[in-house]
Amino acid sequence: MASPANLIAILLFLAALVATINHRFIHLPRAIALLLGSLGISAVIAAIDPFVTPDLAGWVRGMLGEAALPQVLLDIVLGLLLFAASLHVDLTELRRQKWTVLMLATAGVIISTVVFGGGIWVLFSATGSPVPLGWCMVLGAVLAPTDAVVVDALLRRAPLPTALKTAISGESLFNDGAGVVLFQIMLRFAHGEQGLFGHGQVAAALAIEGIGGGAFGCVTGFLAARVMRWVDEPGLRLMISLALVTSTYRLADLLGISGPTAVVACGLLLRMRYPRNAERISMIDEITGFWHVIDELLNAMLFLLIGFEFFVIDFARVFLVPVIGALPLALFSRLAGVVLPVLVLRGDGRHERRGMAILTWAGLRGGVSIALALTLPATEYRARLLVVCYAVVVFSMLVQGLTMPQVIRRLYGDQRGRT
C-alpha cells in the first residue's frame, strides 16, 4: 500500500542500511553515499520492473505522489535543516564576512539566474525544442540556491581559511530565501505578468522579504532566548526550540516574508543569546546534540528522495544537448554569480582567485532545487525543465561533491584554521 507512513519507514530503513555500508566499507561523504545508494536502487527497480508482476515503479511513484514531497520539503523540512545548520555558525567570523555573504546571497543569486536562464534558452532553441525565455528564467531561479546542508557537511572539517569557510556556509544559509523569492517572481513573469522588472523591483522584493524575514527571526529568537532563561530544564528548552523554528517558519510565510531567512536569523540570535551557566559559558550544547540528530535524519531521507525522484521525472522526448550543455552552464552561471559581487566589493580580484574558485565549486545544488522544480505547473515545458534540473543537481552532488577535497588540497594545501 502506497502511504506516507510506508515511505518514511522504507526511507529510514534504507538510510540506515546505506549509511552503515558506507561507514564500514566505502567512506564517502554520507549525503553523497545516500544519493548514490538511492540512484542504484532506482536503477535496479527500473531494470527489473518489466519482468515482475507488481508494478514496482508505479508503486514508488504512488508513494512519492501521496507524500506531497515538494510541499513537505519547502513548508517543513527546509526550515528544520536551516535552523540546525545555523546553530553551528561562527558568529564572530560571520559579522566580519557580512557584506560578502549579503552580496553573494542576493546579487549572486540574481546574476546566476539570469546567466543560466539566458544560456539554457539558447541551448533549447538551438536544438529545435524551444522553451520560452520566461520558463528558462524560472529554471535559472530553481538552480540558483546552493544546498546549505551538503555544503556545511563537506566544509565542516575542510582545511580552508576560516573567513572563506564562513562566507561559503553563510551564503548557502541565506541564499535559499532569496532563491525562493526569485522563483516566485520568475513564475509570474513566465505566466505573462507585466511590470515585474525595472526600477529595482526585483531588488526591492528581495530586500522586503529578506529584511522582513531577518527582523522577524531576530524578534522570535530573542523572545525564545528570554523564555529559556526562565527555565532550567534542558528538555523544556529543547521543546521551546522546536516550537520556535516551526512557528517562525510558518508565521513568516503567512506574513509574506522569507521563512528560510527568518529561521536562520532566529537560530543565529538564539545561539548568541542562549542561557549561560555560572561561569558565563553558553549552554547551547544542550540542544545542539538533538538538532544534530534531526539534521542527520532529515538529511539522510532527503538525499534518498532525490535519487527516488528518478521515477517522477519523464525522460522521454528530451533532447540530450540541452541536458549535457546545462552542466557546464550551471558552473559558469555560478562563477558569474560569485565573481561579479566579489569584484564589486573588493575592486580587484587578483588576490581572491582561489577563494572564488572554491566558492564556485562549492555551489552544490540539492533538495531545495528539486522541491522547487517539482512545484512547477503542468505545462508542455515541465518535463524538459525537470530533466535539466535533475541532471544539474545529480552532477553537482556527485562530481563537485566528490572532488571537493581534491580541489581544496590543490588550491589551499593544508592550511587548516588559517584566516
Low-confidence stretches: none
Report the average pLDDT across residues. Answer: 87
- Please bin the fraction of helical residues: over 70%
- Compute the number of strand runs: 0
Structural class: mainly alpha
Whole-Å distance between the termini? 54 Å
Q: How can the largest sheet be summarized?
A: none
What Rg, in angstroms, do the CA atoms define? 21 Å
Per the principal axes of the C-alpha atoms, what is the gross shape? globular
Question: Beta-strand level of the residues, as a percent range?
Answer: under 5%
What is the N-to-C succession of helices and strands?
A: HHHHHHHHHHHHHHHHHH
Number of helices: 18
Describe this structure in words.
This protein is mainly α and 419 residues long. It is globular. The chain is built from 18 helices and no strands. Helix 4 packs antiparallel against helix 14, helix 6 (98-105) packs antiparallel against helix 15 and helix 15 (320-346) packs antiparallel against helix 16.
